[in-house]
Amino acid sequence: IKIEDDRTGLEIQTLRRAILDNLFYIQGKFPEIATKNDFYLALAYTIRDRLLQRWLNTMQTEIKNDVKKVCYLSAEFLVGPHLENNLINLGIAEKVKQAVTESGLNIKELIEAEEEPGLGNGGLGRLAACYMDSLSSLEVPAIGYGIRYEFGIFDQEIKDGWQVEITDKWLQYGNPWEIARPEASVTVNFGGYTEPYTDGHNQFHVRWVPGYVVKGIPYDTPITGYKVNTVNTMRLWRSEACESFDFQRFNVGDYYGAVDDKVNSENITKVLYPNDEQIEGKELRLRQQYFFVSCSLQDMIRIHLLNNPNLDNFHEQWAVQLNDTHPAVAVAELMRLLVDIYEYEWGKAWNIVEKTFAYTNHTLLPEALEKWPIEIFGNLLPRVLEVIYEINRRFLDQVRIKFPNDDGKISTLSIIDESGERYVRMAHLACIGSHHINGVAELHSQLVKDTILHDFYLLWPQKFTNVTNGVTPRRWMVQSNPRLSKLITSKIGDGWIKNLQELKQLERYAEDQTFRQQWREAKQFVKQDLANYIQEKVGITVNPESLFDVQVKRIHEYKRQHLNVLHIITLYKQMKSNPNLDVPPRTFIFGGKAAPGYFMAKRIIKFITAVGDVVNNDGDIGDRLKVIFLPDYNVTFGQRVYPAADLSEQISTAGKEASGTGNMKFSMNGALTIGTLDGANVEIRQEVGEENFFLFGLTTPEVLTLKDQGYVPRRYYHSIPELKGVLDLIASGFFSHGDPELFRSIVDNLLYDDPYLLLADYKSYIECQEKVSQAYKDQENWSKMSILNVARMGKFSSDRSIQDYCNNIWNTQPVSIELKD
Ligand code: 26V
To answer: What is this enzyme's catalytic activity, as reactions (predicted)?
Structure first.
C-alpha cells in the first residue's frame, strides 16, 4: 500500500494524522491536554507543510532565473490572519474542514484562535498586504520588505466610553507562519563620524566609523497566491545586538554596558508607532526606517551577486517601490552602498539608483509629510546625510539650468528645508531618486501635481502618474463573505475571483426578483451574525432588520466621524419631537482606533459612546435608533463588518482622503455608499453609476474657494436652525450628564475653527441621509442598487492595481512556478 506523506498529503486521513503529528512533535502535546491554541498551531503547521514546496520553488526560481523582481519596501504590512486565507488560496478549505471536523474539532474556532499580526496602522499597511496577495496571485516575483515589530498596533479597549491602549503581544503564543533566517543576517551602522581616506590606487573615499552596529535578522512569511504555485516572501527584519561589539566591553568587565547595548539595539524593532497621518520627529522612528531599509538593500545586493558579477545591471533586476516616504532614505542608502562599499563612480551609481526606485504618495495632509531635523539626522546617520547633501548639490545645479536666477525654485525644491530650523524633506529625496511618482486615486494624483509636489511636476511632468488603489477579492469577498460569494458563483461561475471584471455578468440579475430575494437573504444572514456579535461584545440588542449604517476606519477629524454623530443627534431630536416619524430603524456602527496622543480623536470616541449611552437607553426610541462603538477594529473585525453593512460612510472633507480602501470593501459586499467627492469615491461613483451612490458635500475646488474667502462656521450655525439645535444640545451637557465641559472642545472647534468644514457640509449631508432613508423603504430597488454596486466593482481589485504597476512603473513580467517533487 502507498501511504501519503504526512507533510504533503491531502487525503482526509492523512490530514488528520498530520494534525496529530504536529500536535505531538511540534507542540509536544497529547490531544487530551492540548489547548485550543495548541490545536490551532498544529493545524497551522499542517498547512504550512503543504505550501513549503511551492514556497521554496518560488524562491529558487526567482533567484536562479534572470527575472526582474518587485521589492515592496514598507514600514507596515497589515496582513491579517493567515490560516483561512492560505486554505482558500491553496484550494484545500473543504478538505481541511472535513479533516478537522472528523477529528472532533471546530474549524471556525481554530481559525478564530489565530492572533492577527497588527503590523500596520491602517490604509497604507493594509494596502501593502492586498498588494502582496495580488503579486502572488498574478505570479509576479516579489518580496515585501519590512519590520518585524515585536508589538504591533495596540489593542483597544473602551472603558467608561474612553479608549484605553493595551500592548499587542501578538507573538506570545508563537507564530507558526514565520521562519527565521539567521544565516542571512546583516549589520547596520549608526552614529559615529566619517573620515576621508585614500586607497592603494590613490582613489579618494569616505569611511563611516559608526558609534554602534546593529544586527538585522530576517523572518520570512509565505504569501500564497490564489490557486497558483507562486508563494512569494514577506521578509521582516528584527534587530539584535551585534555580539562582536559588546564582547569587548564584556571582557573589560563592563557587563551592564554590554547589556545596555543589547537592550538599545533590540529596541529598534520593539514597537510600531501608532500615529497615522501625524509625524512625530522621534529619533527611534528614524532608526527603524534606516534599519529596515539598509537591511533590505543589503539583502537585494547579496541575492543579486549570487547570479551577477557586479551591480551594473541592478536596476534591470529589481524594481523597488517606496510605500510612502517611510523608506525614502533608501535612495541615499543605495548610493552610499554603491559608492562607498562597491566603489562605483557617482554618476554611474546615480543612474542605477534613479532607475531602481519609484515612490507612492499616500497623503496630502501637511502634518503627515515627513521631515527630519538635520541635527537628529546627522547625529544618527552622518554618512547618509553627506550623501544626501551631494545628491542635493547636483540636483540643484540641474534646477539652476532649468530655471536660471530663480532662488524661489531652489528653496522650494531643495531636499533641505531652510525656512527655519533645518530639515531633511523625505518626499523630496523620494522624488529626486525615483523614475515614477504616483498618487493612489485619480483625484489624489492630480492634487499631488497641483499642490505638494507642484514644482517637481513642473520639472519632470513625465515622472508623475496615477495608480488607483484596489483590494483583494480573495480576503474581502471569498473569505469574509462566503454566502454572497457562493450566490455569485452559482450564477456566473467562479472566474470573478481571479478576474473581478467578470462580476459585470451579475448586472442582468439586478432585475431578477428571485435573485434579489436571495441577495437579501445573504445580507440578512451576515447581519444577524453581526447582531449576535454585538450582543456578545457590548451587550446591546440591535434589530437585525434595521439599516446597518457603518463607519469603520482610523478616528481622525478629516474623516469626520463627528459629522456622522451630528446626523445621529439630528435624527434623535426629530424622533423625540415627532414620535410617529416615518423613517426606517437604523443601527449606527463605529469602529476605529485613535492615535494615543491625538486629543481630538480620543474625544470623538468618547462623544460617540456618550451619544450612544443616551440614545440606546431612551425608551421612546426603542430599536429605531442604536449607536454602537465596537472596540478594537482590526482586519479580523473588518472581515465581519464589511459584509453586514447596508450603508458605507465615506464622508471625509473633499481633497483630504487620498483614496480610501474601506470604501471598496463595503461596495464589493453590497453596501451602498454615502460619500463626498473624495479619493476613490469619485471613481467608485463613476463605475457604479451616480444613481447608485448617495453623493453630498462640497467639491475640492469649492472647499478651497470657501477657505480662501475666509470660512466662518458660525454663519451656518446661525442660519440652520436644526444645526443650531444639535450643537446647543451638545453644549448644554445633554450627552455628558449635564457637564458642559466634556464636549466643549468639540463644539468650540466646530464653531470657531472647523478646519474640516463639517458645518458647511451639514445640510447637504442631512438631506442626503433623508434620501437614504427613503430609498431603504423600497427594498426591491435597494437590492437592485446593491447588486449593481457589486457587479461594477471590477476595477477595484488589487489585481488591477498591480497590473497597472507592472505595466506602467515596474516593467515586470509574471513567471509561472513549476513544481518539482
Ligand atoms: C504616517 C506615519 C507618520 C509616522 C508614524 C507612523 C506613520 C504611519 C503612517 C503614516 C501615513 C499614513 C498615510 C496613510 O495611511 N494614508 C492612507 O493610505 C491609504 C492607502 O493608499 C489610502 O487609502 C488612504 O486614503 C490614506 O489615508
So the answer is: [(1->4)-alpha-D-glucosyl](n) + phosphate = [(1->4)-alpha-D-glucosyl](n-1) + alpha-D-glucose 1-phosphate
